Amino acid sequence: MIRDAIEDSIAWPVRKVVPILPGDYSDLELKPVGMLEVKLVQAKDLTNKDLIGKSDPYAVVYIRPLQDRMKKSKTINNDLNPIWNEHFEFIVEDASTQHLVVKVYDDEGVQSSELIGCAHVLLSELQPGKVKDVWLKLVKSLEVQRDNKNRGQVHLELLYCPFGMENGFVNPFTPNFSMTSLEKVLKSGMNGTEATETPKEATQKRKEVIIRGVLSVTIISAEDLPPVDLIGKADPYVVLTLKKSETKNKTRVVNDSLNPVWNQTFDFVVEDGLHDMLIIEVWDHDTFGKDYIGRCIMTLTRVILEGEYKDSLPLDGAKSGKLNVQLKWMPQPIYRDS
């Protein structure tokens, strides 16, 4: 606690206003200026800290290193490629100097956790009201710059919303309505909410949130898949899983091909798009079973914001290969209790 307090007092900008003439100088004091929403998506290729089995990673995320301001993720047991998919919100006091810190630890049970690596993002690099998708390389220390060891990467989605934005991102809802900043952004953008909306009008709309919809996924093709069979070929197929509902779909098998073409479309009913994700796995079909090739993990943030897009995704866990997909989002307004 003492270390955190000292670190905070040094790292966080502290301004002391000394009045020369009598008057109200409260507007000169540093105060909260906005909210930062952080989606802790996943990590990959983490360094293994255990002699037996694999590390049990969890992450600590914070802007200010104070106990009540730091957020801790759940622990994913025995996994060097954990998927967290957790959301946190932080108060921002000075976007020009503050930064977000992520520290990934190996949970050692009753013993002290061991640091796997850490990373940080300057808030000044974030564009207000725009979601930023980043992969951060983990290092041993934020103070030591010369660290070339591969400790893994962590995947974040970040959204900074200053208070009182005048470009349509003002929160039109009452304070007791539990929404993430991203939901507020989408709500204001999709419904044309103006900053001039009266509190009464905002209250009438406060239960309407567009987070439910139909996700349409087209698995177009794959390229340069690694050979699995003895003859240097593979019989690939794709399994799609919506993480929260665990809904699954599967493509047909394409025999003897490292560049298969499927062009198959699957529809998923999504109840909570902002907090769900799509896991796409490529498998090799075998007469006596199946072999895992690689996977892609996708949040639904981009498709919700853009409506529709195509992308070519590298396969994690595979020596080579990429997957060509198309995603489309069809929103359905629903009402939920505040």
Task: Give a short synopsis of this structure.
The protein is mainly beta. It has four helices and 16 strands.
Give the topology, please.
Blueprint (H helix, E strand, L loop, with lengths): L1 H10 L22 E11 L12 E6 L8 E2 L10 E10 L6 E8 L7 E9 L9 E6 L15 E10 L18 H10 L8 H7 L2 E16 L12 E7 L4 E4 L10 E10 L6 E10 L2 E11 L1 H6 L1 E7 L7 E14 L3
Antiparallel strand pairs: 1-4, 1-8, 2-3, 2-5, 5-6, 7-8, 9-12, 9-16, 10-11, 10-13, 13-14, 15-16
Taken together, the total number of domains comes to 2
Distance between the termini: 36 Å
Assembly type of the shown chains? Answer: single chain
- Strand order in space, largest sheet: 4-1-8-7
Rg on CA atoms, Å: 23 Å
CATH superfamily of the largest domain: C2 domain
Q: How much helical structure, as a percent, in the residues?
A: under 10%
Question: Which CATH top level class of the largest domain fits?
Answer: Mainly Beta
Shape: globular
Enter the CATH topology name of the largest domain. Immunoglobulin-like
Number of strands: 16
Share of residues in strands? 35-45%
Low-confidence stretches: 169-178, 190-210
How would a textbook summarize the main sheet?
4 strands, antiparallel
CATH architecture classification of the largest domain? Sandwich
Number of helices: 4
The whole-number mean of residue pLDDT values reads: 82
The chain-level structural class is mainly beta
Sketch the topology as an H/E string, one letter per element: HEEEEEEEEHHEEEEEEHEE
GO molecular function: lipid binding; metal ion binding
Membrane topology: Single-pass membrane protein
Protein name: C2 domain-containing protein
Main location: membrane
